[in-house]
Design brief:
By secondary structure, the chain is an alpha/beta fold. The protein is 34% helix and 20% strand. Helix 1 packs parallel to helix 5 and helix 5 runs antiparallel to helix 6.
Length: 213
């Protein structure tokens, strides 16, 4: 079995964790565990959703794959020694270390992205640069020689996880997982990137983000 640790922390973004989980858990040879600092329920950034932590960082020090999701709660982790130490230790032996959204800030704070291109949510790219990364707005960025993949905002974690399945198993496995979750995006709007969203939409998005800060 390939062990995957999905890190949880207070005020994480739900889809950042659940998107990759839904892809990875479809493959019988992959075992997904939600890990965190303590074995307690962790609530998402708006407080509406809680997920149980099934293993502590200490109980799962060397997963085959690390998935670090994002969320406003990542800001509290950027100077959190135990969390950063776990990321560094897990990466030392992992097959792949990955992030979704602002989870890349945590990888950066752990020193894993120095000099590498990396991505994050579009609103956090400037902050990502402060950790030595070279920000890009690509949806998924790979450095296979360094065993690192970073995904952009929220929904891009699904894309990253499908690529991860291809790397861990094969393309057919990835396509089977895609089929099973019926991931066939046909959005009714074309506002998923700041390059295409109108000023009015961007202003509304900023208003909503401020209300949840």
């Amino acid at each position: 079995m390939t062990s995957v640790a999905v890190a949880l922390f207070p005020r994480f973004t739900a889809l950042d964790a659940i998107g990759p989980y839904e892809v990875l858990q479809r493959v019988p040879s992959i075992d997904v565990t939600f890990v965190g600092a303590t074995r307690t329920p962790v609530r998402s950034e708006n407080g509406f959703l809680g997920i149980e932590v099934d293993a502590t960082f200490d109980e799962m020090p060397d997963p085959d794959v690390l998935v670090f999701p994002g969320g406003i709660g990542t800001r509290d982790l950027l100077t959190d020694g135990p969390t950063l130490d776990w990321v560094r230790g897990a990466h030392a032996t992992s097959r792949f270390t990955t992030s979704v959204c602002t989870g890349s800030l945590v990888l950066g704070a752990a020193g894993l992205l120095d000099g590498l291109t990396a991505t994050s949510h579009w609103a956090a790219l400037d902050l990502l640069a402060s950790f030595g990364a070279q920000p890009t707005d690509q949806r998924v960025v790979e450095h296979l020689d360094r065993r690192i993949l970073t995904a952009a905002g929220v929904s891009s974690g699904i894309d990253m996880a499908l690529r991860l399945v291809e790397l861990l198993v094969d393309r057919t496995a990835a396509e089977a997982a895609q089929l099973w979750i019926e991931y066939d995006p046909q959005p009714p709007f074309d506002a998923g990137s700041p390059r295409r969203a109108s000023d009015e939409v961007k202003a509304r998005a900023a208003e909503y983000a401020a209300a949840r800060a």
